[in-house]
Amino acid sequence: MRAFILERYGRKDGARIGEVPEPQQRDDDVLIQVHAASLNVLDSKIRDGEFKLILPYRLPLILGNDVAGVVVRVGPRVQRFKVGDEVYARPDKDRIGAFAELIAVKEADLSSKPNTLTMEEAASIPLVGLTAWQALIEKAQLRKGQKVLIHAGSGGVGTFGIQLAKHLGAFVATTTSTANVEWVKRLGADVVIDYRKDDFEKMLADYDVVINSLDAATLRKSLRVLRPGGRLISISGPPDGGFGEELGLPRFLRLAMLLLSYRIRREAKRLKVSYSFLFMRASGDQLRQITSLIDAGVIRPVVDRIFPFDSIREAMAYVDIGRTKGKVVVKMR
């Protein structure tokens, strides 16, 4: 089968389209014919080798963390799905490979595709949807009437997170560029700060939650908009000790992560707020809840551009620029 294969870390020309064997299917796996897959910043970070210490993939590796397609075979222990079902997923971190004609996904990580979405729209959802869900609902325990700042409101996690936070009844602020201010307001944001003109740190105060996906400077400034007891959750790092424990990493790597996040944790403690890092996990159960919200019209996908599979390198270059509105998708079929 055809796939987009990473052969060397750290080089943008280290990945290519080529022929590989079909994936091996386990007893609790569903084999999916891929119709569409979306690109994430995570794909670029894996390509560049940023996660090779904590996600020790064997090369060559098929990239891709979001998939939508049709079931073509099920393992003997699979109960929820059958051949012909339309499904979507964020495969487990150890079993990525959505940029291919076929992928085997564990049944527990899979959900039926939303009825109201195309394959391309569905492929745009899993990773960012689960990230927003786990940040806002699991970690932040966001409640009605609370105030949340979601950085990068026009990005994949931002566009989904704004809609989810509003559904939960929160007051939502976000940051974006001048060109996207009015557009992000239409997604539901109550306050939109143009980072090219204004400093969010000087305009916001007493927030309950901040979701950060930007750089270290933004992370530090975000601490100062929180009320005492508030939560800063970062999906862009630095990792903390809890993350190392979740992955079952060796003690020296867990210690390294504690050191990487020492300054931000120390500053958070001084300000009487909390800091945590989120590396989202696959979850078919949560994805089914997201599916219900999508089919009910509560949340709608935001797709910036759709590329043919043969143009996947151009699609990754477009994502690398960092100016997408929502998600970029590659169409496999």
From TrEMBL:
Residue span(s) of domain Enoyl reductase (ER): 10-330
Highest taxon in the source lineage: Bacteria
Keywords: Oxidoreductase
InterPro entries, sorted: ADH-like_N (IPR013154), ER (IPR020843), GroES-like_sf (IPR011032), NAD(P)-bd_dom_sf (IPR036291), Quin_OxRdtase/zeta-crystal_CS (IPR002364), YIM1/Zinc_Alcohol_DH_Fams (IPR050700)
Keyword Transmembrane: no
PANTHER family linked to this entry: ALCOHOL DEHYDROGENASE RELATED (PTHR11695), RETICULON-4-INTERACTING PROTEIN 1, MITOCHONDRIAL (PTHR11695:SF294)
Protein name (database record): Zinc-type alcohol dehydrogenase-like protein
